[in-house]
């Protein structure tokens, strides 16, 4: 199974959210092939650099960096050659759909499903799913 793992899921895993932990663990166990592209990598680096997000985190900065390095090593680098814009109400989410389409992903795993389902362009083979629903289905 190929999937785009949104940054909010990885942050949730760092913070100890159970369903997010399970999604990242599935990636580390190679049950999911996570896709990574330039825009998503930039977003991960920016979000992981926000120390205020991790004030109550069980992982320190070095642990988060190590986890991200392992996660990144398992990601399949995917180049996005065609932009599907405008598509989503929140412009900052379009890159997730573009990466998923370019990499033939089955899923986008995110805690922000509502905005991803409101797209103008339908992609019938692609689903946005929460980490909790991912656990129920897989």
Please explain how this structure is put together.
It is built from seven helices and five strands; from the N terminus they run βααβααβαβαβα. Helix 6 links the parallel strand 4 and strand 5. Helix 2 packs across helix 7. The N and C termini lie close together (10 Å). The longest helix has 14 residues. Helices cover 47% and strands 12% of the residues. It has 138 residues and is α/β, with parallel strands linked by helices. The protein has a single domain, classed as 3-Layer(aba) Sandwich (Rossmann fold), CATH 3.40.50. The model has no long low-confidence stretch (mean pLDDT 90). The protein has a five-stranded parallel beta sheet with strand order 3-2-1-4-5, with helices on both faces. The protein is globular.
Helix amount, in percent?
40-55%
Q: What is the count of DSSP helices, taking H or I runs of 4+ residues?
A: 7
Q: H/E element string? A: EHHEHHEHEHEH
User: What is the average of the pLDDT values?
Assistant: 90
Low-confidence stretches: none
- Annotated CATH homologous superfamily: 5'-nuclease
Question: What brief labels describe this structure?
Answer:
single chain; 138 residues; alpha/beta; Rossmann fold; 5-stranded parallel beta sheet; 7 helices
């Amino acid at each position: 199974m190929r999937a785009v793992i949104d940054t909010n899921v990885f942050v949730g895993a760092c913070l100890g959210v159970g369903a997010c932990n399970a999604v990242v663990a599935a990636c580390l166990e190679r049950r999911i092939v996570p896709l990574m592209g330039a825009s998503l990598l930039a977003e991960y680096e920016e979000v992981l650099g926000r120390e205020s997000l991790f004030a109550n985190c069980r992982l320190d900065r070095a642990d988060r960096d190590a986890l991200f390095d392992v996660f990144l090593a398992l990601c399949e680098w995917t180049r996005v050659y065609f932009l599907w814009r405008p598509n989503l109400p929140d412009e900052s989410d379009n890159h997730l759909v573009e990466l998923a389409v370019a990499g033939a992903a089955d899923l986008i795993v995110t805690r922000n499903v509502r905005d991803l389902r409101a797209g103008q362009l339908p992609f019938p083979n692609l689903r946005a799913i929460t980490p909790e629903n991912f656990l129920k289905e897989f």
